[in-house]
Write a structure and sequence with these properties.
The structure is a single chain. This protein has 112 residues and is α+β, with helices and mostly antiparallel strands. It has one domain. Helix content is 22%, strand content 34%. It is built from 2 helices and 4 strands; from the N terminus they run αββββα. It has a 4-stranded antiparallel beta sheet, with helices on one face. A hairpin with a 4-residue loop joins strand 1 and strand 2. The longest helix has 13 residues. The protein is elongated, with a radius of gyration of 18 Å. The relative contact order is 0.17. This is Chorein N-terminal domain-containing protein. Pfam families: VPS13_N. InterPro entries: VPS13, VPS13_N. Keywords: Transport.
Length: 112
């Protein structure tokens, strides 16, 4: 049960940034309330929310830890920790970016 809940939390909050979050990747210390994933690749579109024409060329998180307050699941915060973030980003290939997006982005920065 805890495994499924931990996977849901990780996918819900980190799924837009990290590739392939599956239960078989989890290392769970049930008594400690700690879940770990190692060497999780970043998604190519992980930087999309920045609204800039950037993409991840390569990248991974060395370790993702989810600390779960086992005795107080609903009243205490769950904590997500990233260790060893490796990221190489570059411009999105021009044919993958719409002209309208570039115009809108440039126009919004001129008027701010």
């Amino acid at each position: 049960m805890l495994e499924g809940l931990a996977t849901w939390v990780l996918n819900n909050y980190l799924g837009q940034y990290l590739e392939n979050l599956h239960t078989h990747q989890l290392s769970i210390g049930l008594l400690k309330g700690e879940v770990e994933l190692e060497n999780v690749p970043l998604r190519k579109d992980a930087l999309r929310h920045l609204d800039m024409p950037l993409e991840v060329r390569t990248g991974f998180v060395g370790k993702v830890k989810l600390q779960i307050p086992v005795s107080r699941l609903r009243s205490e915060p769950w904590v997500i920790i990233f260790e060893q973030l490796y990221l190489v980003a570059g411009p999105v290939k021009l044919n993958e970016v719409s002209t309208q997006h570039i115009y809108t982005h440039a126009h919004s920065h001129i008027h701010t």
